[in-house]
Amino acid sequence: ITLPVAENVAVGCTATQSSTFDMKSSADLAIDGNGNMDYEIGSCSKTLGGVNSWWRVNLMKKYYINYVHIHAVNDSKHDWKGIQIRVGNKLQQEGIHNPVCATLPCIQPGTSFTAFCKTPMLGQYVVIANSKCGYPLTLCEVEIFGTSFPENIALKGTATQSSIRDFLGDAGNAIDGNRDSDYYHGSCSKTNKDLTPWWRVDLHEKHWVFHVTITNKITYPERLNGAEIHVGNSLENNGNSNTICATVSFIPGGNSTIYHCGRGTQGRYINIVIPGYRGQLSLCEVEVHGVQV
Questions:
Q1: What domain count does the chain have?
Q2: Residue 216: which residues within 8 A CB-CB, separation 6 or more?
């Protein structure tokens, strides 16, 4: 099995921070490849003091972040305890409310510390946020280890479903790369009113599947409630008995929702099925992100 290897994805990216202490403490110095922890050397970023100081790097695209390696400034006044590392895709309030990867403990001055996310976290922005009032936030080097956002492997697959509603509802419409959620534009799949309707994509080879993104039809979005996403290698019960990756609670009409399969689920077939339900199953796009085994 070949899984993506984590690398320092912060190299060559752009950083910013809540404020800049002086001319030799810009945000980009924390990702310049120099881990020297003496501030006077001129290779550390530093904010002004105050409440809610933060530092942020834009990775330019989405990555799965595994861990962050911090070179702590050699300054006994710097209090690291409680500072948070956040990973996500939002820039509201400078990204300081994105999901938490880790909360830092006390770190000895002039040493390095590795903070591991509990699970790989998907995001374009990594923020180091200090909500405490006091000493400036100083970072002598921040190395962010992650893997590339996997490609949409469903685009190369072949789709089928329990039945077809009409000429507009072909199973392959759900993997055409188009998220258009208006069924009458011809880019959504749709079954008849089947008992336990299902849809399946054959990836043709075994893959590690990390997450599945579903785009719901703009009308009657509640019809997708309770749908299960299954991943596996068996076609028993049309593939609907494979491992459950996730269950859909509700996707608003016209919206797309991402469902994570833990650290990855292996399989060739991805099924979406609504067990015990008699009705139509319509999908406007299914994106499967993973890597080949």
A1: 2
A2: 181, 224, 251, 252, 253, 254, 255, 256, 257, 283, 284
Residue 184: count of CB within 10 angstroms of its CB? 9
Measured at the alpha carbon of residue 215, what is the angle toward residues 214 and 218, in degrees to the nearest 5?
145
Residues 202 and 182 in one domain: yes
pLDDT digits (tens, 9 = 90+) for 231-282: 999 999 999 999 999 999 999 999 999 998 876 899 999 999 999 999 999 9
Q: Which pLDDT score is estimated for 52?
A: 86
- Sign, CA dihedral 31-35-36-38, equals positive
Residue 292: pLDDT above 80?
Answer: yes
Minimal CA–CA distance to 267: which of 240, 227, 247, 248?
A: 240
The reply to whether 172 and 288 lie within a common domain is: yes
- 276: CATH: 2.60.120.260
Q: Which of 224, 271, 215 is nearest to 243 (CA)?
A: 271
Tokens encoding 273: 């099925």
Domain extent at residue 235: 154-292
